[in-house]
Fold:
Amino acid sequence: MHNSSKAALQDPTWVRYGLMTLALLVIGLFLCLPLASIFFQAFAKGWQAYAEQISTPDAVSAICLTLLVSAISLPLSVVFGVSAAWAIARFDFPGKGLLTTLIDLPFSVSPVTAGLLFVLLFGAHGWFGEWLQAHDIKIIFAVPGIVFATLFITCPFVARELIPLMQEMGSEEEEAALSMGAGPWTMFWRVTLPNIKWGLLYGVVLCNARAMGEFGAVSVVSGHIAGLTNTLPLHVEATYNEYNAVGAFAAASLLTVLAVVTLVVKSYLEWQQQLNRPHN
Amino acid sequence: MSIILKNISKRFGNFSALDNINLEIPEGELVALLGPSGCGKTTLLRIIAGLERPDSGHVLLKGEDKTYHDIRDRGIGFVFQHYALFRHMTVFENIAFGMRVKPRKLRPTETQIRDKVHALLALVQLDWLYDRYPDQLSGGQRQRIALARALAVEPSVLLLDEPFGALDASVRKDLRQWLRHLHHNLNVTSIFVTHDQEEAMEVASQVVVFNHGHLEQQGTPSDIYDHPANAFVSRFIGDTNIIALESHHTDWLRSSGLDIPPQPDCLHVRPHDIDLSKATSDGAATAILKDWQHLGALIRVELAKPLPDGAEEIVYAEMPNDRFKQLALAIGDKVDLTIRQAHWFHEEIGRAPH
Ligand SMILES: Nc1ncnc2c1ncn2[C@@H]1O[C@H](COP(=O)(O)OP(=O)(O)OP(=O)(O)O)[C@@H](O)[C@H]1O
Ligand SMILES: [Mg+2]
Structure:
């Protein structure tokens, strides 16, 4: 009886192996092969050339800008994410449903559109363009524009991760902390944060990967000034367009390493979250 | 610390969760808030604690109006229905939390904290669990740790929301007695919420009965049992026979020894207020024994009283084992009923929801 019901669920052997081969083939062809080829191309002319290419002034400036942009936008999206999740999970207010939906907006809008939106607002002919020019503030084709665009793209990550977590957790532990005399900050640091830390870190890791890798939105607002407003992804494109394959792939290899590190950290955090889930 | 609630009302949208509650709790009492599910017990407890604001009315603690004070300045220990232990802290750290978050000047030293935590753990008889995490404890252990944690800040009022709600029957029984003794020793004004009338009667020195956001009655357990204020309380506390009174069917009640005033709509008779004797002939208060059950110390007897219009009224009586043996009754026997005492009410059972 047991056997027969199991047998019913079992597809013929050739189907199983067929599907498995297909999946492996697709992953190999479209993921592993390109990834390997990035490194292959990057090192095509040896270590020396690789090291030279990632230490050109333009490359170094792109790396620094990328690090700077993510260093600014990460804390801001964490603050935004935690506040938004807090508001949505802990309070009832009119427009809560709308806010929850709007948080997802950056996911559904094409990044190029998001970039254009900032040009429309802050560009020379944009709404605030004249005022900004009058006060000699540069946003578009400058670092602030890149930060804005990155913030727009990355702000949902932390909030999306925390909202369900905080809703599931409920507010009883926090209320218990208050009833024992803790102030709101003490409550947050000692009770809320330890409970959401793995989810928060998970959001931060995803957010960081996106902040460093964002191309579309940043491309529109950056103006592609080599050595000034090129982030790493933009630098990859620029060098590639100059037929400098080693330079392009060397820069791309850095982004790839970032991706792999992200993946590993992400798996670790997922595992930790599983361990720390409340037991029922 | 005494607690006085004045005209407390609370609405959630259109739903009235508490309607004009007035309540006085003297210092040192152990009070049960009793009522069916959804009647507003938790809401009231949260309002007293300051976790919820009333729409109108005042909360006075020790005579001071604390309606708009933070939970922090109320000197209240709150034990949550689901314990709400800090899951990422050990039992020790959970209990120490209230002392560690005190302002620097008032904060006890590490040694004092350690001594206090172990004293509290000894009080709840769980000293050997100090380095466990909450998810390594049983329900009853979590309950007692939650209580120890609330006591660590030396509250002047202890609020417990269904402290034994999630526990199985035998653990509940033990903990009830334990809570009673604890209260006796600490003598801190305590309110606990329950929907189990037996628990309320057994543990509390005062019982407050709620229904649909109304306070129906407040009194000692025996007050409430012996003199229920209305039909809802009478029905909610203990078993009772409810007999709807239509004039032509009530003659037999008079014959059973009751003196009924002309007005009431319904009559409540406790099963143990009905006595039986073997009937020799058909009298006005003669019923037929339909069945009986063994309840341990008591026997419950199911009686059918034929009414003049051919219908019958089913009435339950309870008596001690040996009394039942003495009567030597069998199913189908005719018995005469004597009703020692009854309550009558004008309104029908309880209040309608609004
Ligand atoms: N935040 C809220 N929003 C809307 N309605 C609520 C809220 N909290 C409580 N209520 C409603 O108020 C009523 C009283 O709730 P409360 O939690 O006080 O009941 P309770 O007597 O504690 O019930 P139980 O014994 O089931 O715990 C319920 O009908 C509930 O649906
Ligand atoms: Mg409740």
Remarks:
- Chain A touches chain B at residues 172-173, 175-183, 186, 190-191, 194-195, 276, 278-279 (CB under 8 Å).
- Chain A is about 80% helix and 0% strand.
- Residues 15 and 185 of chain A are 58 Å apart (CA to CA).
